[in-house]
């Protein structure tokens, strides 16, 4: 079991987490057969949406072929499989991620890619384990680099090494309930959001641009972070906020040309440069329907104008106040899972 119970935030629900720890094992994939099993499960869900890299790309990462040990930021790919500990040990969930380590800055950022809980195992607490498990991968990377032990108080991985979990999420769409449910779950897990007005992050276009003969269109996304050991703080150091972009782009550079990454970087860093101060106030993620109005700064109508028009998608933008009214009305009854 790779999950350390101490890495699971209290907001996940201690009793549910305890039951999940007794019911499931979460272990890192070591061989090709296990990798194929995990990839097939991810592909069945994320493949049709165009949200999963091609098998050959992730297979090369898994084999270490895309990792440069001498790079300023070293990136490695990892996949975790969750199985039931009773019965036949069938697959229950999958998590994959990139562990990126900047030795000079003494900073480890885990880039969370996909998390999947198979339908039969939802609402069991397994999702909480998959959200916390990457902390152990960061701890190991730090130790193997000779920089210290595991994450401790103060958001560090031992001897002053920072540890941050990073996730890319869609802006809140009042007409897409899942955009809210996902954020609430991560908010309960100790994550917060770097204000898009300060760091308007975007994911590159992963399509085969040359084969399609099209212009790449980056995808605007929210920068969602958990500062390990510092989950209660209401801000993030400027350099750590910038590392969200730089560590993601380190991983993306293995597949995307510098010319495609540059506009994304320039758009984001121009706004960060205009921000006065060394600590950026974070946007706290609402914990449930009673706090739904707190999503106002994360609405699609507020976030998309921070990007070039070509990146905003085809759906028209409503006025922020009308979007907020629709969101509040949609969540006036019911609870998030």
Largest sheet features: 8 strands, mixed
Overall geometry comes to globular
SS elements, strand count: 12
N- to C-terminal separation? Answer: 25 Å
In DSSP terms (H or I, runs of 4 or more residues), the helix count works out at 11
Low-confidence stretches: 151-158
Would you list the SSEs in sequence order as H and E? HEHHEEEHHEHEEHEEEHHEEHH
Average pLDDT number: 93
Helix content: 25-40%
Question: Structural class given helices, strands, pairing?
Answer: alpha+beta
Strand content: 15-25%
- How are strands sequenced across the largest beta sheet? 1-2-3-4-5-9-6-12
Textual characterization of the structure:
The chain starts with 13 loop residues before the first helix and ends in a 7-residue tail after the last helix. The chain is an alpha+beta fold. About 2% of the residues have low confidence. It has an eight-stranded mixed β-sheet, sandwiched between helices. A two-stranded antiparallel ribbon has the order 7-8. Strands 10-11 form a two-stranded antiparallel ribbon. It is globular. It contains eleven helices and twelve strands.
Essential attributes:
337 residues, alpha+beta, 8-stranded mixed β-sheet, two-stranded antiparallel ribbon, 12 strands, 34% helix
